[in-house]
């Protein structure tokens, strides 16, 4: 990989050939003013190439647009100096990322391959006048003679319809699909196919998120992930968050509409996965789904009225396997959906699947599992015990309730660096397009940058006497101009208001108060945490130093942080490959002590103390430089 | 009851007030010539009233039509003498009826009342912020705390849809319907109703016969039979017997049509029973059905192709409870159909239900259970062992394959007495209408009468030199004229041909050869039989002496014979009232050794010996007077 050297700071960074000089500078910790996010329109990111070969857009004065210029080998670049600060490289933002959890703890080896549905081959003796038992009795007899002695078999009535043909078309060789039972000594015959179809044994693992639905096609024999597809949850049209969707579900046939939508989405993903991999839905043996409590209720078409109001009671939290066709999923009759169990209204199957999927319940280390989504669910524990809570953090870190907040799609500002002297921003957007708004990682990096450079004080207020035009009294109160209208995709200024900051402080405060409350409940403190696992892809983008700086994450040695990716999907996949993993989810859901923070006075106390950057108690954040 | 004295024989009989003098004479063993069956048209049944008061039709010569005259107190009647034989009363036909089995062995007490579905009331604690488990978990917790410790509960997914409303509408008092499982330590929650609905707990027991379907509405709390309805099996339009229906089922959507028809019939019976008793189908907890193997397959829509051909293999012989709605029965979701298990292709759930229903498996006495239907199924055994067989007797005793044979409906000749000297018949029809044909009991009494009076010889041939105009060479060979065209409903002579006799001898021969084969298989003989139980209503009409005379029943002391009525329905009812009874049926079906007589050389030997009236071996029939 080419090495770029940035002067005058003399900072170097290795870059992949398709990374432009602006991104390289960000990773090297070099500030280059940039407003348009990399779209090449603001012309602020001018740099001079001192040696080496580049390709890109050269300006009339001999400079190059950093956001549109790519190295063609080792390159030395000079960044125009605006202040003394520029002479030295700043802390590299890229250096404090969490480590990928799964790379260390491979979910494919924690459990023996043993799906909840298994396929076995049987060779039955052909009936004679002396041995003319019924087809079903013959099948049962053969099962009992194998390694299933003492097992009670239930049989799907649908099996009977195809049984005579299956037995005879396969010349009395059949492949039987057996579903595990609630007890070790029971099984259920769900399918009998003619001949040997043991090798056609697919599963689908699904994470149904409030916003996104992701599905993986799995080979249940080889443990391979054959494909993955994602789609937006089409319920979004009926409400951005679970609360508004539950409101929608109360009216008329709202619930039925929501169920239909998510099932349509599932059908679409399944059909795409099948086509893409050139396999038939007939090879499908099972589906596993992890989803939060509300999404699980919608999927099954269960009443959510009582989930919505105190005391927040779900219809069910642990589920029997559901016949997929019964809820409208377009698969053969035998296919069951195995659902990850929920703990409570706002700690759902996605969290339980995640916790077991990443193996917290397998190891002695005290782990804090954090899902910074709309609710902000947290789990604290290890192999011996677990406590969980939903923090009602709100969707601020997903861009919700933030004036120019948006989802992490093309044009979203994903990284912002604030120049410590000039307070000018260095903005990178997803896809290098003109900025449309700010997504979660951008929000955190912006908030941290503004606080670290003293633009914001500990209370989350802009310094009124900063002397920068970027900070101004806007229509919604004081604000920082991140991108001027001239460089933005909308033509409007993209700003970050004090109200936005307040929302973010509330959100991170709720999370942190949650950590403290759960820890306190077991007589422990932050320092006792052996590790922190961040759920969601968010965790991989998050700059740990920044997240600690704003008080969203505890100030622990950075090597204790891991990101898990879509841990809910990892859990769903584990549940497909291993019946035991699914069993562990049920155990975990029962073992987790759930704290209802809305009714917890200790939480309220902590929350109030957390409404500062990073916290009223500076001792909790020893590594944060309190410049403010 | 009035007493009638018949002169000159001086025979007396007590009669109910609505019984005419012709019927009274038949019961008293007095022959009165009568051709029209009691329709009052042949004028042959003239009698003279010597004392007492009668009401009816007086003839110009001062005589009365016996078939249209009723006693109004004690009456003495003189029958015109045609021969010396008339002077003495003949053996009373009514005196050798089988005793009702159920009167002795009440099926309502053999098993403790314990239906396969039970209703229990639960009072659940209302959820609070501290106790906010899911509705389902709350229900499970309460069940586990009661007398269901250690029980694994499955839950119908449909329960979840109504659960929140049921719990809250009943103010946390609910009635839970629990279905027994295949194991003692499992149950299934199939319904949760708000409040206390324990008293609404109905069952329906059904016997699906090839010809007739009978259903009873049962109160599962009080063990009462609330009502009974019967209907013809509408599949009759697609084939009289199981063979022709299986042929129909092979073509196009034949199987689906047959299933639809029987389900329509069930729906009709259920709806009539509900309306008649002013109850709602919502109170229905379960349905039990006993049917032969083919009818059971049609009900479930199972392939019958392999039932039809060697080696005669059913798809299934023991069945899991079937959700009624799944096969189109119009009842609530929770209602399951519990099916009586079958033994083999031609020994079905009707027989197993009958055998257990009458309690053969409960008593040490060696019992022969006979169902003289189309197939002629027989079971031999006691509490320790059982053997069974289907005799392929054919439908002759139901009137099938008999020139003027018909079902036992209005106008069918049900009793015939042959005058031993004049060979004139005394004919009674069902409903006292003009004769249309001869039903089963009429056929037996006719055959026995013709043999006893020497009109037929032991080979089943008419005596050619009898000197009676009743015996003649007809268009179909030799025949006996039972009713002349002038007195019949059709205007045609009703005759009984030698071909009819041959069919009957084959049919009874197959039955008897069946008894002997099963007995021989356990080293026993006819004399070892402690009792004979006749299934079907047929058994209550049957004159035992006559049935023994023709070799249809073994020549045992008549007090060893019992009739069970619709034993299949009795069994279905027992299965509804008692889960244990249903369990015994499953045990019985597995314990029964099935003999395939079509493949049995001993059976063939016996069969050949049985093709005589009553049998080649006279020692087997010591009480039969071989006049021939």
General description of the model:
- Two copies of one chain form a homodimer.
- With 628 residues, the first copy, chain A, is an alpha/beta fold.
- Chain A has four domains: 1-90, Beta-grasp domain (Ubiquitin-like (UB roll), Roll); 117-194, Ubiquitin-like (UB roll), CATH 3.10.20; 202-350, Nucleotidyltransferase, domain 5, CATH 3.30.420; 358-395 and 503-620, Nucleotidyltransferase, domain 5, CATH 3.30.420.
- Helix content of chain A is 27%, strand content 24%.
- Chain A contains 16 helices and 30 strands.
- The first copy, chain A, has a seven-stranded mixed sheet, with helices on both faces.
- In chain A, a hairpin with a 5-residue loop joins strand 14 and strand 15 (225-232).
- In chain A, helix 9 (349-357) packs across helix 14, helix 11 packs across helix 16 (601-609) and helix 14 (567-577) packs across helix 15.
- The longest helix of chain A has 24 residues, at 498-521.
- Chain A is elongated.
- The mean pLDDT of chain A is 91.
């Amino acid at each position: 990989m080419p090495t770029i050297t940035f002067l005058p700071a003399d900072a170097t960074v290795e870059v992949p050939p398709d990374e432009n000089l602006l991104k390289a500078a960000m990773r090297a910790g070099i500030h280059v003013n940039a407003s348009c996010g990399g779209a090449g329109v603001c012309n602020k990111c001018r740099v001079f190439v001192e040696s080496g070969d580049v390709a890109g857009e050269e300006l009339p004065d001999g400079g190059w647009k950093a956001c549109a210029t790519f190295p063609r080998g080792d390159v030395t670049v000079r960044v125009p100096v605006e202040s003394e600060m520029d002479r030295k490289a700043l802390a590299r933002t890229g250096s404090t990322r969490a480590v990928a959890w799964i790379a260390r703890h491979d979910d494919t080896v924690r459990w023996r391959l043993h799906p909840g549905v298994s396929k076995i081959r049987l060779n039955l003796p052909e009936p004679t006048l002396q041995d003319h038992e019924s087809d079903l009795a013959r099948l049962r007899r053969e099962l009992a003679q194998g390694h299933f002695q003492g097992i009670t078999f239930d049989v799907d009535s649908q099996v009977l319809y195809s049984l005579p043909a299956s037995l005879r078309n396969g010349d009395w060789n059949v492949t039987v699909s057996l579903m595990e039972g609630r007890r070790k000594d029971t099984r259920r015959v769900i399918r009998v196919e003619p001949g040997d179809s043991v090798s056609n044994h697919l599963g689908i693992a699904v994470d149904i998120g409030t916003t996104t639905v992701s599905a993986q096609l799995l080979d249940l024999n080889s443990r391979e992930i054959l494909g993955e597809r994602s789609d937006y949850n089409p319920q979004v049209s009926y409400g951005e968050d679970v609360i508004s969707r539950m409101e929608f579900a109360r009216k008329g046939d709202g619930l039925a509409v929501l169920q239909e939508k998510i099932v349509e989405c599932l059908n679409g993903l399944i059909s795409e996965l099948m086509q893409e991999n050139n396999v038939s839905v007939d090879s499908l043996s099972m589906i596993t789904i992890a989803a939060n409590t509300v999404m699980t209720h919608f999927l099954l078409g269960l009443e959510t009225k009582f989930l919505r109001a105190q005391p927040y009671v779900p219809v069910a939290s642990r589920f029997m396997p559901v016949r997929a066709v019964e809820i409208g999923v377009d698969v053969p009759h035998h296919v069951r959906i195995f659902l990850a169990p929920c703990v409570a209204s706002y700690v759902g199957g996605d969290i339980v699947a995640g916790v077991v999927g990443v193996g917290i319940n397998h190891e002695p280390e005290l782990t804090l599992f954090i899902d910074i989504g709309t609710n902000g669910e947290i789990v604290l524990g290890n192999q011996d015990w677990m406590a969980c809570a939903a923090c009602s953090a709100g969707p601020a870190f997903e861009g919700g309730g933030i004036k120019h907040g948006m989802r992490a799609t093309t044009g979203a500002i994903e990284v912002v660096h604030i120049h410590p002297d000039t307070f000018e921003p260095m903005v990178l957007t997803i896809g290098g397009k003109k900025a449309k708004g700010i997504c979660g990682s951008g929000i955190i990096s912006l908030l941290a940058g503004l606080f670290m450079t003293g633009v914001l004080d500990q209370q989350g207020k802009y310094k009124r006497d900063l002397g920068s035009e970027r900070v101004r009294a806007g229509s919604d109160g004081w604000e920082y101009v991140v991108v001027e209208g001239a460089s933005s995709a909308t033509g409007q200024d993209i700003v970050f208001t004090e109200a936005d900051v307040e929302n973010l402080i509330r959100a991170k405060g709720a999370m942190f108060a949650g950590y403290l409350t759960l820890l306190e409940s077991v007589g422990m403190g932050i320092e006792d945490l052996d590790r922190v696992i961040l759920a969601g892809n968010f965790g991989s983008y998050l700059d740990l130093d920044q997240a600690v700086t704003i008080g969203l994450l505890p100030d622990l040695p950075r090597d204790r942080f891991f990101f898990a990716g879509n841990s809910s999907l990892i859990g769903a996949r584990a549940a497909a490959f291993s019946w035991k993993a699914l069993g562990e989810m049920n155990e975990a859901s029962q073992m987790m002590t759930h704290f209802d923070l809305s009714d917890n006075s200790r939480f309220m106390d902590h929350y109030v103390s957390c409404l500062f950057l990073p916290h009223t108690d500076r001792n909790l954040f020893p590594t944060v430089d309190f410049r403010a």
